[in-house]
Design a protein that fits this description.
It is a single chain. The protein is α+β, with helices and mostly antiparallel strands. The protein has one domain: Glutaredoxin (3-Layer(aba) Sandwich). 30% of the residues lie in helices and 17% in strands. The protein contains 6 helices and 7 strands. It has a 5-stranded mixed β-sheet with strand order 1-7-6-4-5. A two-stranded antiparallel ribbon has the order 2-3. It starts with a helix and ends with a helix. The N terminus is likely disordered. Pfam families: GSHPx.
Length: 189
Amino acid sequence: MVKILLMLGTLLTGLFADKNEVAVRPENAAAAKQNLYDFKMKSLDGKVVDLSQYKGKKVIILNTASKCGYTPQYADWEKFYEANKAKVVVLGFPSNDFGGQEPGSEEEIGAFCQKNYGVTFPMFAKVVTKGEGQSPLYKWLSTPDLNGWNDKVPTWNFCKYIVNEKGELTHFFASKVKPDSPEFLESLK
């Protein structure tokens, strides 16, 4: 019973802590020490992916989870990716940071995403998005000294970071923002 109450509390915290928060790169942002193209990440199938292959496209980085109230967003982001993949790529980074909602192995995550949502956008190996053991990519995304302006770490699953065609971080969106949200669509202009 205590375990169930703790899980419910964690879930409610995620649903109510996410305030549709948006952060936008200011025009006077400091020069970034790194950009997206400096990173190589491991895919779900264990291959090293050089993120510089996405030069010239906008990139949406999502921290994902298979057992979250926001998990149905996989369908939204897949639909968006299919409609826009010539100019925009969606990258999914599973994380078990929020309520233990991504406990599966890379193989289980891949099977879940394909079976339930038909995900074809690139998915990566599980990462730590905040705190001790934070992945270098998420450290860059959330450290102003590295990215030039942003200090927002994910507040729950399915937070979004937008990177422009030059590899510069331009926006952060909290979990509730979907691909059809006006503020998200504006960020792609």
